[in-house]
Amino acid sequence: MSYNHDKVVAGLISEKDLSKIREAVCIQVEKIYDSCKEKDCIENAKVLFKNPESMQRIINRAINVKCKRSVVLDVFTDVEEVPFKRGFFTVDVKFFIKVSLDFFVPKMTGGTRAIPRQGIVVFSKKVVLFGSEGNVKIFKSHYVEPYSPAASSLQQDNQPIAKVEVAEPICLNAKIEDVLDKLFDDCSCIDQVPGRILEAIEDEEDVEFDSDERGTDEARHEGHIPSRRVVVTIGLFSIIKLARLVQLLIPAFDFCVPNKECIASTDENPCELFETIEFPVDEFFPPQKFDFPGALEEEEEMVQGMEEHHKHGRQE
């Protein structure tokens, strides 16, 4: 691998590198005009299932439920101008979160069996961000067949673009609650979930129950009105941005030409590649708390947070 030390490469630069700027370049990029970070605790959100009738039989017989994992499948956004607030926009964000659950159902021979299932949680929120003003249409030329008239297509208008970055959600809790005392129709609302979101839910075979597992209150369990439902509590970290396409003038050193060769991985040298991998000591001997990066600091912050929470609770 060779490097040309007379050229500036991607990475940190020094003061002497500034003298090597060759030109000012006009580029078109998405400039972030405003952004905010959110820490949402989605408490007791109802879980929607792909096959509500089949799932209701499992829910009615389960004595407990555990949430194993949650994943954001997709995010829908909608941007609207705020009346009488020039340059500001409301951003409606809808998260579709897949949750993996284990339902624990009693067995007629004693003990319980775990039935794994997946569901969807829908969470909506609205924020207000600054997106500036601008009302132009952007056209982009595209290839056409020979001897046909030249054509161009509208790529987009220059309205603000909503962007959402989300970390892996944290599944905090799951429970089965009785809804007999609720004065509303607890519909499944699964029809409101887009089809491509439902495709991410695995198709699972229906569960057969023995006669001793069917419970004593069969009429209530098999009724058309659900008597129980599953709710989960999820911790969600996200960053919401408003961006616009703009032209920026930036200094440029040169074309960004790769300065190293690719490392090949082929069938001929798998063992040679394996030899370059260090032995995973931490996988066999997990680091202790004082060796784990940031563990002591995180523990101290959690303790302080709990003390402040209890302190505020006593004051109220």
Give your account of this protein's structure:
The structure is a single chain. The chain is of the alpha+beta class and 316 residues long. The chain has a domain at 29-248. Helix content is 16%, strand content 41%. The protein is built from six helices and nine strands; from the N terminus they run E-H-E-E-E-E-E-E-E-H-H-E-H-H-H. The protein has helices spanning 52-61, 195-198, 218-221, 270-275, 281-284, 295-315; strands spanning 23-46, 64-81, 88-106, 112-130, 137-141, 152-157, 161-166, 170-178, 228-252. The strands form three sheets. Strands 1, 7, 8 and 9 form a four-stranded antiparallel beta sheet that branches. Strands 2-3-4 form a three-stranded antiparallel beta sheet. Strand 2 (64-81) and strand 3 form a beta hairpin. The longest helix is centred in the last third of the chain and has 21 residues, at 295-315. The protein is extended, with a radius of gyration of 28 Å. The model is unreliable at 212-224 (pLDDT under 50).
